[in-house]
User: Fold this.
Amino acid sequence: MTPREPRLKAFVARDARTRRLSWEAVRQEVGYACDPRAIRETMREMGYHKRVPRKKSNASPENKEKRVAWCQARLHWAKDEWKRVVWTGESSFSTAGFGHRPWVIRKVDEEYHPDYTDKNLHSRP
Assistant:
């Protein structure tokens, strides 16, 4: 049996949880008796692909304005001046095991949709 597009699209687009399922899990939950590759190919034909979610911070509008102002005030800086800035970084980790990368099913224009992005762990609720 080959997957029927409208039912498959409606299922995958239902919520953020269904967008993060594997092709095999989609096949099982929809109840199709086909190879998961058929699900993948049907979704691909409709413009959906598996992608690593974009990272999106939850900086407040006020903090975003401050960051932009800070950068604009230093646009003229020379390389030596930038060397004196101490940059702090953020580390990421996964509790799901080594090398685990989440994937979402989405279209190209849904890249920064809130349901399909990974937010920083320290962000506000």
User: Anything to note?
Assistant: The first strand starts at residue 49 and ends at 51. The chain has one domain: 5-90+101-119. Residues 5-90+101-119 form one domain. The chain is about 40% helix and 10% strand.
